[in-house]
Amino acid sequence: MKSHQLSIISRQLKRGLMRIRFLLLKTENRKPKTIIFLLLFLCSCGDEGLIDPYPEISLPKAPGKLYATDIPTDTGSAWTYVNVDTDQEFTRRVEGTRDVSGITHRQMTVSEISFVEDDQFNWLAVDHLVANAFYLRLDAEFVDVFPFPIFATYFSKTPQALVESAFDIFLPDPPDRITIEHYKHFPPRRLWDFPLEVGKKWVVFKKTAGIPVEVTRYVAEKDVEVTVPAGSYTTFVVHEEVVYADNPEPSSFLISPPAIYWVAPSIGIVQYRYSRYRATDALFSQTFALKSYHLPGPNTD
Known about the structure:
Strand 14 and strand 15 (284-294) form a beta hairpin. The protein contains three helices and 15 strands. The chain is mainly β. The model is unreliable at 1-52 (pLDDT under 50). It has helices at residues 3-26, 32-43, 128-131; strands at residues 78-83, 89-100, 103-110, 137-138, 141-142, 150-157, 161-173, 177-193, 201-207, 213-228, 231-244, 254-255, 259-264, 268-276, 284-294. Strands 1, 2, 3, 6, 7, 8, 9, 10, 11, 12, 13, 14 and 15 form a 13-stranded antiparallel β-sheet that branches. Helix 1 runs antiparallel to helix 2 (32-43). The chain folds into two domains: 3-43; 68-294, YmcC-like fold (Beta Barrel), CATH 2.40.360.
């Protein structure tokens, strides 16, 4: 380890010890349980005092399952996808961190689309829930007049789940400008529930106020071979389904066509397909395949 790295670590330890010493002086007359709690809390905090959602826990792995460490999320990781029908490309990239409600989250940006006409906006909705207007909300209701594209999402990952808590979205700024606004999810979205195994089902999010909406994912298959421009992979197949209504007191519910994700260990999503059925004039499907990827590794998250 280089000397400047040791110096940085030394300074961080000194700051941590000073905080512990200060709190112990304030709690010298308190019960031992209180002191233990404070020590555990400090150990769980990052350098900026934020709770660190990336504990260094190594869990034993069972065959036939996909674990949190099998989904790369290191800063600098990038995946480029191509629309198999239009040849348009875009890249998802993990870039830096941001505090969301006191928790350190990683930022996943979505790049502009390639091969767009000069007079068109270069960002498009390229995600199942974004494309069907299940992101932007006005008060309690999702705004379904247009699938406003996303610039970035913010997620945290533990051995149990990958949770998306916030997002940056492109919105019109009259008369002729575009702005990026930051919003939090209420409630946060549990995109992945680890470990993945065939038959597992979980709720991504559920909205009960106003018009009800519930999004679920379930693992349909494993060991499914799929070939994309980036190569051939053995994958888990995960379906995503939305059950929603068209008014606050529905007598019946609508069920979306399932979105499908092909997930390869150590790579992530190598292919996905979804239908447009809201905020659109016609029902149609889109498939995106992994063209290339960059994983700085080793994947330690």
